[in-house]
Amino acid sequence: MSDTPITDVHAHILLPGLHAEVERRAPELVEEAAALELKRNGAESLAVSGPMVGARVPKLTSVAERLAAMDAQGVDRQWVSASPNHFYPWAPEGLAVWIANEANRLIASHVAQAPERLTGLGLVPLQHPSRMLECLDDAVLGRGLAGVEISSFAGDVELSDERLEPFWARAEELGAVVFLHPFGCSLDERLDRFYLSNSVGQPTENAVALSHLIFSGVLDRHPGLKLVAAHGGGYLPFAIGRSDRAWRVRPEAHRCEHEPSSYLRRLWFDTVVHDAHALRHLVEVAGGSRVLLGSDFPFDMGLDDPVTEIRAAGLPDEITRRILGGNADALLETRVRA
Fold it and tell me: How far apart are CA 234 and CA 230, in angstroms?
């Protein structure tokens, strides 16, 4: 390993045994969810995605395959989070809590096979705010995970929802990472062709979710919250001036203490932006200490050679070193450990 280990904070695991049990327990709901996926993605994209994921199952399930792929990429460490299809935002309360706790157990077991190289992020049932706290504690205190992964919304729960206040407070208290990774876009069938469900839907959902956090004052009330946004925060860092304008001229948009752009320096962002110019802009608006190497391993919309892409982005050497690993290390230094 290098003096400063290279860390990929956006890498996924697939949990086929968990999904099989969910199918057994709630077959009708799984069928309804599949119909929604067809509506949102379109048959053409699903026909491509199936074989794509199938070919990557070994990297998504085997620690040996994962480590070999990391070695090939020059990555020393990964933060491993569930593939977002395991969010099950439609699951009723009892099933949703079981899913989160079982996912936490399975992820902890996976990363325990290579603890010097793998760090786990668990799940919480976002659609049931009253149960999120116990699942967060299960992940961090019960399983030794570094935090949890959440979607951009679930059912009627937006990230500005007052019912999430105890969750944000507890995450802040524990120093836990909260990894924001959307699954599905509420624009539904408007994005059902050309793979717009991912190329447009994911950055849209990131922008909406982060805007809920900013404008509602969550980051004012919880300044120590460690929230990492996948996909470079989506569209928000690149259109933040419009948010600032709304904050200045619209009373209903003036509920956070400072201009929205200032909160970009209170958040963290991964590097899955697919564009060196966009990456440099992200560093400019968020700061060199707030950007983390991410690849979306091992999916086709990720970065195949993430380390090389960062090094070729034309950033100052010190910022490049921070992005490659220093910033991720700093985020984990103050977390509460099991």
Answer: 8
Beta bridge partners of 120: 80
The DSSP result for 269-280, as a single string, is EESTTS-HHHHH
Q: Determine the straight-line distance between the first and last CA of the chain, rounded to whole angstroms.
A: 26
Do 330 and 8 touch, CB atoms closer than 8 A? no
Read off the amino acid at residue 263: Y
Task: Render pLDDT for 189-204 as a digit per residue (tens, 0 to 9).
Answer: 999 999 999 999 999 9
The mean predicted confidence, pLDDT, of the chain is 97
DSSP SS3 for 313: coil
Backbone angles phi, psi at 41, to 5 degrees: -100, -30
Residues 133 and 113 sit within 8 Å (Cβ to Cβ): no
Peptide bond into 58 cis (omega under 30): no
Nearest 5°: CA angle at 299, between 296 and 302?
A: 45
Task: Tell me the C-alpha distance between 275 and 297, whole Å.
Answer: 17
Q: Please report where in the chains the tokens 């949990």 appear, as a residue.
A: 15
pLDDT at 147 over 90: yes
> Tokens 């020393």, residue?
76
CB 230 within 8 A of CB 10: yes
- What's the length of the chain? 338
> What are the backbone dihedrals phi and psi of residue 124, each rounded to the nearest 5 degrees, phi first?
-135, 155
pTM summary value: 0.97
* Strand 291-292, strand 77-82: pairing: unpaired
Could you tell me which residues come within 8 angstroms of residue 220 by beta carbon, excluding any fewer than 6 positions away? 256, 257, 258
